[in-house]
UniProtKB/TrEMBL annotation:
One of its GO terms (molecular function) is rRNA methyltransferase activity. Its main location: cytoplasm. GO terms for cellular component: cytoplasm. It is found in: Cytoplasm. The lineage of its organism: Bacteria, Bacillati, Bacillota, Erysipelotrichia, Erysipelotrichales. PANTHER family: NOP2 YEAST -RELATED NOL1/NOP2/FMU SUN DOMAIN-CONTAINING, RIBOSOMAL RNA SMALL SUBUNIT METHYLTRANSFERASE B-RELATED. It catalyses: cytidine(967) in 16S rRNA + S-adenosyl-L-methionine = 5-methylcytidine(967) in 16S rRNA + S-adenosyl-L-homocysteine + H(+). This is 16S rRNA (cytosine(967)-C(5))-methyltransferase. Its EC number is 2.1.1.176.
Length: 444
């Protein structure tokens, strides 16, 4: 049976060469392995560590490749270099020896000798010096393993200091955060249940519904099976708090999958009213339905529908609240999906912004006068966030920013929330990067 390093290499190959999502590829390999808990943790560290620092590892390793090394061998050398540079618990000789064994097993004696020669050469010679990169943006991009175009974009929009903070935060380890299902019981009751199952946790910083898991696999608990909680970042939990749906009202969630905000809204309405959840992909519809069922919610209707065609399903002014958690570039969740730093291209942003505009144009008429339109993304890009809201307000003057948002979000966000918009940056409160704007439809 393959060991942790072999499985980590296969996972990284699936991600970097075959285009798999990091969380899916890692979970698939772990589920079918017979690794110990310790080895599973080590494997996870290797996968995410190598992905998070891939550009820097490549910067160090490339001078020793002479253009001959490609594919899985290049990834194996990067993964080994990560162990040597970042994992104090792994001796250098052990990391190299294991890499050579994997290369022999996977590609024969020649590849074993090639990997051994490259790694030994790297250890005998100084690695490239980051300080030799004269351009500040390029040096930061390489040091933190972010694409140069993204670093330049953030510097232009937010300045060098904030950009450096975000880039460093994206390479930090992430704890799992869960949201208590208020329909089932209180956060204190959930804490007790988790402690009985050996799970350690602490209160979240921003959301009153949040628990941060500090030890244990919370997905394997009875509490999860019984629907006591939903795995969700604190920043995402703030969306439903910002919306603050009233009991017995109608809420539309236009882009619902996997159902985190839909289920949170439904919980806050205490099984009254109705949440109409939509998504464009059939497999995601099942995901929403499964989550609704597990959490025991009765006030959710799930439908397969393109968000840009929702006016074909509902007449004008059908909903008290409309939630648009829009498709976006995902630049706020790079710490959870580090492969996005490698795969995302600047031209991708234009395509997603066109979709955002189309959804907003479509659903505007579905909001009742006096009702709420809440727009959110998991990205850090002004063109998709506050600039998108400004565009929408110019196109739809009957909508105004809701400055009472300040009454529904944590006090630490008061300055931003008083404008009706909040931008969370990676690293600010140990959350993902996230944007929320709350709009009211008024009678002109």
């Amino acid at each position: 049976m393959a060991n942790a390093r072999e499985l980590a290499l296969q996972t990284l190959t699936d991600i970097l060469i075959n285009g798999a999502y990091s969380n899916h590829a890692l979970n698939e390999q772990i589920e079918k392995s017979d690794l110990t808990i310790q080895d599973k943790n080590f494997m996870t560290e290797l996968v995410y560590g190598t992905l998070q620092h891939q550009q820097l590892l490549n910067f160090y390793a490339t001078p020793f490749f002479n253009g001959k090394v490609k594919g899985w061998i290049r990834i194996l050398i990067q993964m080994t270099l990560y162990q040597i540079l970042y994992l104090d618990s792994v001796p250098e000789h052990a990391a190299i020896s294991e890499a050579v064994n994997i290369a022999k097993k996977r590609g024969g004696q020649f590849n074993g000798k090639l990997v051994n020669a490259i790694l030994r050469e790297m250890m005998r010679n100084p690695l490239s010096n980051l300080q030799e990169i004269e351009d500040d943006a390029e040096r930061l991009a390489t040091k933190t393993s972010h694409p140069l175009w993204l670093i330049k974009l953030w510097i232009k929009q937010f300045g060098m200091e904030k950009t450096e903070q975000m880039a460093n935060a994206n390479n930090e380890r992430v704890n799992v955060t869960i949201r208590v299902n208020g329909v089932k019981g209180t956060k204190e009751e959930l804490k007790q249940k988790l402690e009985e199952e050996g799970i350690q946790c602490r209160d979240g910083f921003l959301s009153p519904d949040a628990l941060v898991i500090t030890k244990g696999n919370v997905i394997k608990t009875k509490a999860f099976e019984q629907g006591w909680f939903y795995v969700q970042d604190e920043s995402s939990m703030l969306v439903s708090r910002a919306l603050k749906p009233k009991h017995h009202t109608k809420v539309l969630d236009t882009c619902s999958a996997p159902g985190g905000k839909t289920t949170h809204v439904a919980e806050m309405m205490r099984q009254t009213g109705m949440v109409y959840a939509h998504d464009i992909y059939p497999h995601k519809i099942k995901l929403i339905e499964d989550n609704v069922k597990r959490l025991g919610l009765k006030n959710v209707v799930v439908n397969l529908q393109d968000a840009t065609k929702l006016t074909e399903c509902y007449p004008s002014e059908s909903f008290d609240s409309v939630l648009v958690d829009a498709p976006c570039s995902g630049l706020g969740i790079l710490r959870r999906h580090p492969e996005v730093k490698i795969t995302k291209k600047p031209e991708d942003l234009d395509g997603v912004m066109a979709i955002q505009k189309e959804i907003l144009k479509t659903v505007a008429s579905l909001v009742k006068y006096g009702g709420t339109l809440l727009y959110s993304t998991c990205t850090v890009n002004r063109k998709e966030n506050d600039k998108m809201v400004e565009w929408f307000l110019r196109e739809h003057p009957e909508f105004k920013l809701d400055q009472t948002l300040v009454e529904r979000l944590p006090e630490v966000l008061n300055e931003q929330a008083s404008t009706g918009m909040v931008q969370l940056f990676p690293g600010d409160y140990q959350t993902d990067g996230f944007f929320i704007a709350c709009l009211k439809r008024e009678i002109l």
